[in-house]
Amino acid sequence: MSKATMEFKKGDRVTHYFMMPVDSWSAGGKLFFAAKTVPDDDSTDSAAVIDKTFDDTVVTEETVGLITYKKYTLAFIGSDTQDVSFADGSKRKKYLGEFQFVPSGGQPVSFPGDDSFIEVLVYADIKRKVV
Question: Could you tell me the fold of the domain covering 5-123?
Fold first, then answer.
C-alpha cells in the first residue's frame, strides 16, 4: 500500500479531498486535520504547523465500486501554511499529518487508523502576494 501524501505551496490556496466510509460518518461531526514535525501528546496541538477543522458543509456523497463514502472537499487557504518557516534556506519541509473525525457526542476516530501518518510536504515560495 502506498503512503498517502498531501502537498502544499506555502501561502497558496490548495484543495485536497478526504473520503471515509458512510457507515463511519454521522451528521454534525467535525473533521480535524493537523500536521506536525513529530507526534506528541499535546491536546492543544500547539506544535501543529497546519491545523484545520471542517464541518458538514463541505461533505458530499460518492460511490466507488460497491462502497459509498462521505467525501470532504478540503479548501486550505494561504494562511493555513503561515507557520511553516523556510528561514534555513530549504525548499521543502516534510511533516506528519493525521485526520481525526469526531462525531457529535461520540468518540474520535483517526485516519490512518494504525501507527502510520500522512506525509505532508510544504514547498517554499518565492513571491508572496496578499490581496
Answer: Immunoglobulin-like (2.60.40)
